[in-house]
Amino acid sequence: MRDSDGNPGQTVPGTAAVDHLLGRMSLREKVGQLNQRLYGWQAVERTQRGGFRLTRVARAELDRWGGLGALYGLFRADAWSGRTWTDGIRPQERAEVAALVQEEVRHAGQHGIGALLTEEAPHGHQALGATLLPTNLSLAAGWDPALVAEASAAVAAELSASGVHLALVSALDLLRDARWGRAEECFGEDPLLAAELTRAVVCGMQGDRRGAIGAGGVGVVVKHLAAQGEATGGRNGQSSVIGPRDLRELHLPPVRAAVEAGALGFMAAYNDIDGVPCCANRALITGFLRDECDFDGIVMGDGLAVDRLTEMTDDPMAGAVTALEAGVDLSLWDESFVLLESAAAQDRHVAELVDAACRRMLTLKQRMGLLAIGRGEEDSDPRGPVRERVTVTGGGTRAADIGNHDAARLSRRLARQAMVLLHNDGGVLPLTREARGKVVVAGPNGLDVTAMLGDYVPPLPEGAAPGLYAALREALPASDIVWAPGLPTPAQLKGADLVVLALGGTSHRAYDDEFAANGALIAKAEATSGEGVDMADVSLPEGQDVLAAALRQVVTCPIVAVVIAGRPHVLTTVVENTDAVLWAGYPGPFGGRAIADALLGTEEPVGLLPFTLPSHPGAVPVRYNDRHPAQNVYRDAREPVLFPFGFGLRYHQVVFENLTAAVGPATVRVSVDVGNTTNTGTEAIVPLFAHRAGGRVLPRRRELLAHRRIPLPPGARTTVVWDLPVRTCFAEGALHRARTDLYVEDLHTPIHPYSTPELAVRPRDGRNPL
Fold first, then answer.
1. Mean pLDDT computed over 724-746
2. How far apart are CA 399 and CA 125, in angstroms?
3. Domain formed by 21-400, architecture
4. DSSP string, 8-30
5. The domain 654-751: what is its CATH number?
6. pTM of the entire predicted model
7. Domain 418-643 is of which CATH architecture?
8. pLDDT-based confidence at residue 374 (cuts at 50, 70, 90)
9. pLDDT at residue number 377
10. How far apart are CA 244 and CA 273, in angstroms?
11. Where does the pLDDT of residue 385 fall: very low under 50, low under 70, confident under 90, or very high at 90 and above?
């Protein structure tokens, strides 16, 4: 087990007290701790006086179990929950509502055990008035784990001030297929970049060595475990047909990074891996996660994922027992997990598994201060005095103030970092003063800010953030900014100095949409990305290619395309018919201003693609770290890659020189000189790639070994140095003729594992890859 600082091999304080409490609990109370059946937004209701009280549904659940294991989404506000600024919980009300819920939960049982409050926070909290960040795919384009950690800490401060204990955070999925609607939730297609950003999120929210828990931080439940991004055909939740080697090399590094960072929870994914559903995969949850990685927290099933096991077991109780045996501790909305009470009453082995899962839940609650043990005399009533008042007035609280301004500032910085310049014919960007006279903004994403937010977001207050058109009007008050919702008319284009074409997709959910039982979108004409919106064709939606080509035919001034999207779209036609292309991802509520800053050169776009952009919709999936080249294979798409992973242009020249590598007994020291030849300060992202040949496995074409984002003052020159473990620099089981080619930009340096006599690279042992 781990201690309170996350160090392995020591006993967690309070273990004896947790065991004592466990021994006093009934089977029903234990099973109640493993269930999270309520939709949190249905647990409280506003009274006529403006306060809040528990609903009958919530009281029935508390009475049934004598308490509550966890409550999901108490503050969630979005189209699925139906909560708005009219009837949802406002920022200044959160802390008191959380206190009300905890008081009711503690008094529902005999042991005074509070409930874990869990909230969706994939890129900011999904609650009214909460700070939103760019989606993960945009964060990855900035290649800046330190800033991601800082922003995550600021979001955690808001959550903690609201009474939240656990944040459900997307981090583990890799973007292995552009057709997958949840691509926006990924940190790109590379396991190293995803692992580093996952570590940043966990350390930011929980603090280093879990030090922020109880001190302005929250616990993190990282999702999804595992390989969900590998689902066949990009179809959400379906089979991931993947070998054990690729599972370990590609999809498990972010998992291991999260454990090493001290993550307190994981969420088991919907998909199966070679036929075994993740919620039933004991080799994955217990074998790899708990035994090999020494994970000491809880595992939660994804929403209704345990109920889905009935398709495999043909019996709900058997499905619940299978998930419990695999290592799932806490279900989410499932009906089958309540059957564990009957299963445990009939089978001692199941009863022991219930005890083990409940012990992990209670240990986490002890860490969060939700147990009465250790607070005073053991013989006193752990529930404390009953309050006469069971409603809150929504009065003053600091929940709306703590961390909010800092998180917003960091969200703005992250949005600026998300900009990737893909195409800039003739140096059209940044815009010159002459090109700012009359600007026509066209395309489906030019007006509303909602397209920039991504999935899992609350409604913004009216006028809270500008879209691109409004942001350009702010940035260019002396210019004539014209909005054209479709193909601009000749009158709108007359005298135009520039056309900004806002393309891409949207994950926006409307309040009249239809949703599945787990909140995924069922049917929607507008959304082109997000959960429940997998696409067979990753071309730009809604005839946008036709729009770009038609515009080129009638416009003589420069056309700049801005792609606001949550997945890699095919941009071949757009590049051919525009003068510049800026990829913005889903940059969040500050995206409009960030795009305007990039176009005007106020902030230089220096981001790099965290994924591969295909040139043809039929060429996907295509990834930079595949083992075989995709070029010259398809007769109708000889070059399937339009822009590779790590691609990005810039306004100011940065020079890379003198790439060197020195092989030592345990490490390889790699260095490269980076220079800014201009009189303007900038930043640079320096990625180090490798091609590792000479082992016993077919090598990947390229792999990311390291990266660094650095500031470069005017005329500055600096040396970037990495000390990398030998085992990561050479192929598994490297032979005497082994060679690794290192790359930074156009620089190339070959190294050999036997450069020094004392060095030898050994193959891994033959243990179970899970």
1. 88
2. 13
3. Alpha-Beta Barrel (3.20)
4. BTSPPTTHHHHHHHHHHS-HHHH
5. 2.60.40.10
6. 0.92
7. 3-Layer(aba) Sandwich (3.40)
8. low
9. 37
10. 10
11. very low
